[in-house]
Automatic annotation (TrEMBL), chain A:
PROSITE patterns: FAD_FR
CDD domains, per the entry: FNR_iron_sulfur_binding_3
SUPFAM superfamilies in the cross-refs: Ferredoxin reductase-like, C-terminal NADP-linked domain, Riboflavin synthase domain-like
Keywords on record: 2Fe-2S, Iron, Iron-sulfur, Metal-binding
Cofactor (UniProt): FAD
Organism: Nonomuraea gerenzanensis
Keyword Metal-binding in annotation: yes
Gene Ontology MF terms in the entry: 2 iron, 2 sulfur cluster binding; oxidoreductase activity
A Pfam short name: FAD_binding_6
Domain FAD-binding FR-type residue range list: 4-105
Protein name: Flavodoxin reductases (Ferredoxin-NADPH reductases) family 1
KW Iron-sulfur (keyword) present: yes
Automatic annotation (TrEMBL), chain B:
Residue ranges of every copy of the Oxidoreductase molybdopterin-binding domain listed in the record: 35-179
Annotated region described as Disordered, given as residue ranges: 1-20
InterPro entries to which the protein is assigned, alphabetical: OxRdtase_Mopterin-bd_dom, OxRdtase_Mopterin-bd_sf
Pfam family, one: Oxidored_molyb
Name the record gives this protein: Oxidoreductase molybdopterin-binding domain-containing protein
Domain of life of the organism encoding this protein: Bacteria
PANTHER family: OXIDOREDUCTASE MOLYBDOPTERIN-BINDING DOMAIN-CONTAINING PROTEIN (PTHR43032:SF4), PROTEIN-METHIONINE-SULFOXIDE REDUCTASE (PTHR43032)
Cleaved signal peptide residues: none
Amino acid sequence: MRRLAWRPAELVHAAAETETARTLRLRVPDWPGHLAGQHVDVRLTAEDGYTAQRSYSVAGPADGDLIELTVETVQDGEVSPYLTEEMRVGDQVEIRGPVGGWFVWRPESRAPVLLVGGGSGIVPLMAMIRTRRQAGSRVPFRLLYSVRDPGRRYYAEELRRPEPGLDVSYLYTRSAPEGLSRPARRIMLDDLAEGGWPASFEPDCYVCGPTGFVEAAADLLLALGHAPERIRTERFGPTGG
Amino acid sequence: MSIISRGFRGRRRDDGGRVPPGQYLADDFPVLSAGPTPRVPLDRWEFAIDTEAEQTHRWSWEEFMALPAETPTVDIHCVTKWSKLDTTWEGVSLDVLFEDVETAAEYALVYSYGGYTTNLPLEDLLDGKAWIVHRFDGEELEPRHGGPARLIVPHLYFWKSAKWVRGIRLLNEDWPGFWETAGYHNYGDPWREQRYEGD
């Protein structure tokens, strides 16, 4: 069995996603490709040899040697502040992956898809949306995206563009834009009943976000009659830094 | 030659050599699992050990709670990079559960409510190395952390410490579990950084 190799990766482009999140495009020579929903390990090495590593979900399909990550700054974090604030184009990290074969969506799949994301949990779900687009898949997707306020939305421009077969609903938890009938609150049964698919459609449900959010959303999906084996979850601890 | 990340200094902590390579200390208790949290009513809970000769040893919740308990304080290490030092649990040593179990099997497949499985050599469960626990930090174990009862095997990555544990099947041949078939290492020693297949 060949060991999953650490590969040097160079930052080729970076853009602010929100006030606290940044999208990084990295060139990883000989990248083997990945599936939507998989993650990579990122390793930083200081000049004296000290290293730190963390896992990050990939935000989109591979584009040759390029992969994209969106990283949220964890306050007092060790790795994320480097990636979101310090790192400049031309700087290098090491990447290992792709990892994870469970929380993935494959374009050949035919089941309708429900994506439920909380905060930075949108990242692997966005990889699924982009992979669907790239593959020309017509599988119907629904995205329920829970964020504190409109300024916290990742990929806001891209998700505003109409896309056949993709419905996007925002669930604001602290402050909603004026004119929305849904008040700002945490995810509830109605949100999933109205914005999701009926359980009888047997959709594949992907839930990703902070632990409390994932627990709540997965429990609500069960209450709506979705089979546990159709609910895949990925939980981000607040220390995921 | 390793790649230097320009401008990275990192935050070093003196952990007294207790944190394995590639791990960082977490102050909270992150949760990781692959699906919804199963909820198991205590009157329907049971724990079973099935031997390779198809002998089954079973405990109801009441029988399990009547067994002699221990309160191990151990360090735990998750493959997603966090470690927690000095976590205190309460539960039953696998040595107690295996007292009357006759077996020559070398492998154990642990299975859970909700369908999760994980494999490990049987010897990694014995001799004071593993427990079935029902309390964490003096409190009842929450469902999200594997309650009513989970396995803990602190010397291996925490995915081996199956939540919502339901039983152990003893096998003559190794049988990879859920994450072990999904690209993770078959054994999972944090000190040797056995994270993924081939490590």
